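Please go through the sequence line and C-alpha cell line underneath and see whether the fold suits the sequence. See right below:
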Amino acid sequence: MRTNKFIPLTFSLLFSACQPNMQTPNIQNVAPASPSYNANSANRNAVGQNSNQTASPSPTIAADKSKIKTFDGTGAVTKVNLEIGSVELNHEEIKGLMPKMIMEFYVSDKKMLDQLKVGDKVDFVLEDNAGAEQIVSIKKSK
C-alpha cells in the first residue's frame, strides 16, 4: 500500500497557520495620513488607511521627554508639502530605527521646508516618540 507523504506536511502547515501566538507587525505609524496621499502612489498609504481620510494640519505629539529618542538621517527630497508641513524623503537607513525607504515625515516647524525642493540632498534629525516620528531639523547637504 502506498502512503501519501504530503498528508503530514499538509496537517503541519494547517496547524502552524492557526497558532494563537502569532504576532502582527506594528504598522501604527508607517506614514502620516494626509489628504495629499492617493491610492495610486506606491509606499504612501499605510495598511487600513482610507485615502479619503484627512489628517490634522498641524499634528502634535504629546511629549514625554523620557521616551523621545533622536536619530540622524540623510536622504533626498522627493516631495514637499508646505500646506500640512511634511516632506517625503528617499532616506538611507536610519540606524536603530528603520531601513532605507521612501517615507513622508511631518516637521516640527513648517518654516524648515521653505528652502527645500525636490531633488535636494539633506541631512536631518528625526525625533521618535514611541513610534510617532517628526523631523526637528533638516538642512541641505554640502
Remarks:
- Residues 63 and 129 are 7 Å apart (CA to CA).
- The radius of gyration is 20 Å.
- The mean pLDDT is 73.
